[in-house]
Design brief:
Strand order of the largest sheet: 1-4-5
Distance between the termini: 127 Å
Order of helices and strands: HHEEEEEE
Strand content: 15-25%
Radius of gyration: 41 Å
C-alpha cells in the first residue's frame, strides 16, 4: 500500500505541476493577447492623432487660402478703380469761379469722399507720402531734386497717390519727387 500511496502522491504532484504549467501557459497566452491589444490600441491612437492633426492643418491652410483669395480679389478690383479716383482728385484740383462750377465741384467732392469711404471699408487706405522719408516699399521715385531746405530722402511732392491694403500689401506705390 505504501507503493500505491507513493504512486498516488506522484500522480497528484504531476497533476498539480501540469495544472500549474497549464495555468502558467494560459496566463502567458493572455499576457501576449493583452500586449497585442495594447499595441494595436497604441497604433490606432497614433493614427487617430495624426489624422486629427492633418485635419487641423487642412482647416488652417484652407482658411489662409480663402483669406489670400479675398485679398487678391480686393487688390485687383481696387487697382482697376484707382484711375477713377485719380480723375476725381484732378477734378477737385481745378480752379472754379462761377457759382455753378462751385456747386459742381462740391458734388465731385462728395463723390470723392464716398470713394475714399468705400476703399476704407475694404481695408484700403491712402499712403501718406509728402513730407515722409522715402520708402521704396511704399514709394516710387520718379523725380529727384537738390533741395538743401529739406532732409535727404524726403518726399517733397506726391504725383499719384499710393494705396495700401490692410497696412501690409501695397495696391499701388505712390509716385513721388524725392529731395537728395
Amino acid at each position: 500500500m505504501d507503493k500505491n500511496k507513493d504512486v498516488e502522491a506522484e500522480v497528484k504532484e504531476e497533476e498539480t505541476a501540469g495544472a500549474a504549467e497549464t495555468a502558467e501557459a494560459a496566463e502567458t497566452a493572455e499576457d501576449a493577447a493583452d500586449e497585442a491589444l495594447r499595441k494595436e490600441l497604441a497604433e490606432q491612437k497614433d493614427k487617430y492623432l495624426r489624422l486629427l492633426a492633418e485635419y487641423d492643418n487642412y482647416q488652417k491652410r484652407t482658411q489662409r487660402e480663402k483669406a489670400a483669395r479675398y485679398a487678391d480679389a480686393v487688390v485687383d478690383t481696387v487697382e482697376k478703380l484707382l484711375p477713377v479716383g485719380d480723375n476725381l482728385e484732378r477734378a477737385l484740383g481745378t480752379e472754379v469761379t462761377s457759382e455753378d462750377a462751385v456747386k459742381f465741384k462740391e458734388g465731385v467732392e462728395m463723390v470723392w469722399k464716398q470713394f475714399l469711404d468705400a476703399l476704407e471699408k475694404l481695408g484700403v487706405k491712402p499712403i501718406q507720402a509728402e513730407g515722409e522719408q522715402f520708402d521704396p516699399n511704399l514709394h516710387n521715385a520718379v523725380m529727384h531734386i537738390e533741395d538743401d531746405s529739406v532732409d535727404d530722402n524726403t518726399v517733397v511732392e506726391d504725383f499719384a497717390r499710393g494705396y495700401i491694403y490692410n497696412g501690409e500689401r501695397v495696391v499701388r506705390h505712390s509716385m513721388v519727387k524725392v529731395a537728395n
